[in-house]
């Protein structure tokens, strides 16, 4: 028997949280309005106890639910989400392959961590433990394989087939790296697409999001309940990134968050043109400026990666830090001008 749920190549694929999320949504045309209503705002967060920076210091705001351990699927109207603890699964079912096949038969996507060291047809096979999430979206009994989306080659998102026998070992041998990640690793997400939902794009909400970005705020106060961190939104993300580069660590993942936001903006521009909010000429102008910012962010990211082996995250010489931060502020100014012009054009 063969069962395959819909899964598309995502617009943005830097992290599992957004890649698999978009991969499902983009498979259904009725989600287009919701996708382009969102993924504008970015958030930088830092701990208030000053003991350490959060392991991941920035993200797209729409990947945050505002509640501990409750992911982005919980607030998206197109998903029904159920969380199953891995320990309970093992207590109730001795055959995980059959269990997950039943979930797929009932149109549930399955998102969980597995140990890639056990996957015989990947570069991680037989090497050190490597826990990473995969999204199961189908199976093929003839070839004895699950169809999955995840990161299997060179940290690039893609689609991959996992033999049932490999999957059993990979699921069973997940290693808990630390207490922080353990909560995530032990959760299995069951996701069902809600085809009955209808969502309409709202120009006013788009303008509010653009205004929030320009004014470095979040009018929804979405993250209010997580009180152990301070939050910085929109253009202030650049300032906090520069501050972190100068005082703490130089981490390319901050740059990647802005890169993802601009990659989404490129696709959104075509959507806005199609809906008549901007003209073709305006679209071409905004595309050029957005691509310029993306190029700047790629330069910053590549400089960080180039110097990673020599200086790590914490030992950069001051003159390199100064050059990097100067380029960050130049990019911020370009971003401000772009977003302001886009806001005025749509308004």
Which structural category do the helix and sheet elements fall into?
alpha+beta
Put simply, the count of helices is: 11
In sequence order, what are the helices and strands, one letter per element? Answer: EHHEEEHHEEEEHHEHEHHHH
pLDDT below 50 for ≥5 consecutive residues: which ranges? Answer: none
Averaged pLDDT: 90
Work out the number of β strands. Answer: 10
Strand content: 15-25%
Gyration radius (Cα, Å) is: 21 Å
Helix content: 40-55%
Spatial separation of the terminal alpha carbons = 53 Å
Largest sheet report = 7 strands, antiparallel
In a nutshell, what does this entry contain?
The protein has 11 helices and 10 strands. The protein has helices spanning 16-25, 32-37, 86-92, 96-105, 164-172, 179-185, 203-215, 236-247, 252-274, 280-311, 318-346; strands at 2-4, 42-47, 58-60, 79-85, 108-115, 131-140, 145-153, 156-163, 187-193, 229-233.
